[in-house]
Amino acid sequence: MKIFLTGATGFVGSHVARKLAGQGADLRLLVRKSSNLANIEGIRGETVVGDLLKPESMRSAVQGCDALMHVAADYRLWVKDPATMYAANVEGTRGLLRLAGEEGVRRIVYTSSVATMGFKSDGTIVDETTPVSLSDMVGHYKRSKFMAEQVAIEAARAGQPVVLLNPTTPIGAMDLKPTPTGRIIVDFLNRKFPAYVDTGLNLVDVTEVAATHVAALEVGRFGERYILGGENLTLKQILDKMSAITGLPSPSIKVPHAVAMIFACFDELITGRMRGLEPRATVEAVRMGRKKMFASSAKAQRELGFRIVPVYSALRAAIDWFRKNGYAPPEEKTR
Hints:
This protein is of the alpha/beta class and 335 residues long. The protein contains eleven helices and twelve strands. β1 (2-6), α1 and β2 (26-31) form a beta-alpha-beta unit.
């Protein structure tokens, strides 16, 4: 099967690429001129230069492919110019699906996000049927992914063979940028996590997410959304797990969201607006943290064979990879 894969140089996309290559798929991998290619070293496949901001630049890559796996997205919780995020996530998806339809691609897997779900502040576990609307989306990333997901759903309703996957918070090795969640791990390893807020995430092993992308090509139902998640954990529980793995102290100070919001406002102003750098704390992240992002993956288990596995090995893999690649000091040896 000839597959065009976007996002192959990224975190989730690189794991999907390795899984597909291991099963003998004929791959075309989208890269940008500025892409860091470290995550696709050793993967057998044709690289093609294109850009989601210019969908027509990907037409030749789509031509002749049996399947499209659209994993790429602009995943940031702070962006100086939000218009570029909407252009990539929403219009890029719209343009790519249009090309796939025109070129007769027979199967499409679109990687959305659990961010599009209707989360509650009380930690209610949500699923694909939980009511949600654009007004529930906090910040530009969530809004853009929700809007892009609606584009994919509309394409499926119009007859395109689109399956939608909604990973929760993937963790593991090869988080090159790193992602916002990867930065939590990096900050912890660098002892830059003095306190925590009362929030929660669903952590999922990125290798299980990748394996289910492959399965969705074969058995996913068109127009359906599938949450791919692992363990529902509070932020404090995540920090405690990392402490148990590393021996580093877990923060014991819990700060109110109001205090975290004040810090985020100052950090965005000074670091973001005045210095032009990405802030460590963002208003969007604090606002998102008011809701615990707990979710159920029962549907993906039933229909795609998705496995929910303990998060320990994925956390260990992420910690080891970040240390090995210089994001954090090496493991301290005990005498």
